[in-house]
Amino acid sequence: MPGNIAEQMQQLYSRFGAIPGVHIELHTELLAVRIENQVAVATIFLQGAQLSEYTVKGQEPLIWCSESCDYTDGKPLRGGIPICWPWFGDLQHNPTDVQTMILDDTPAAHGFVRNRPWNLTKIQLIDEQRTDITLNLEVNEDKQTAAGYNCELQLVISVGATLSLEFTVKNRGNKTVCFASALHSYFSISDIDSVAVNGLENVEYIDCVDNWSEQLQNSAVVVDKEIDHIYQDSNKEITIVDQGWKRVVSITSEGSNSTVLWNPWIEKSKRLSNFDDQDYRKMLCIETANIRSDSVQLQPGATHLLRATFDCAPMS
User: Fold this and answer.
1) Which of 47, 72, 77, 169 is least crowded, fewest Cβ atoms below 10 Å from its Cβ?
2) Is the pLDDT of residue 1 over 60?
3) Could you name the CATH architecture of 3-314?
């Protein structure tokens, strides 16, 4: 085990190891904290502040993460809930005011914070059924990646009978900053043929697979091909109705007016890293976002909150 990782583990144990239900783990090259309380378990990696697991005890997992992940330093996990910031997807498809803040000549998709180490700053037992975890990252005008970002990022994850993520960005500089963001949530499902998504009916979307054409969602979403939709004005509750597991997953949000729905389907699955050929049947991404016309212009000293809450109930 490299010395710096061993030192980090020791520091984390000394700060948090005595808290009931808290376990510090090393997955190959990546440090994680595993949380267990009376009602749920969760795993959060310090790299990217990426939650990889959340399961209510006695239920099927809510969050999906690929079994083919290699847990390599500097490489985001395939699955879980990566944080996309300060751009989403390919940089060229972001608003101009976001693009002009980025200096990187070959920017990776979804921004640069999902493969950076975050600081685990607090773990708090609210009660026997809820544990809150706080992670922070300071972005100080990285000259190789972005110009003008002097921001403090914070993610608070609440693990209990429901799962909640609060992602805040505070502009600590003296200039307005522009960014897109998303909680890129991979949901675990029984089978792609057994699920439908409600709550997006009569919402306009951009079909990224069909030449970025503008469409209208006329009915519940049933996935039977590759799908990559960006929904605007999608601020209502969204539900995943899973007939195979006889459950309904509800997704509510705050500070978001855009949603991404994604499944790679058969052919693209074969090209994705850390993704087995049949994994498209086991997952569905529904991402709480601030993208396209919903991107953020944050004034000096201001804070933006993006919150997503996930609840799971038996089908009535």
Assistant:
1) 72
2) no
3) Distorted Sandwich (2.70)
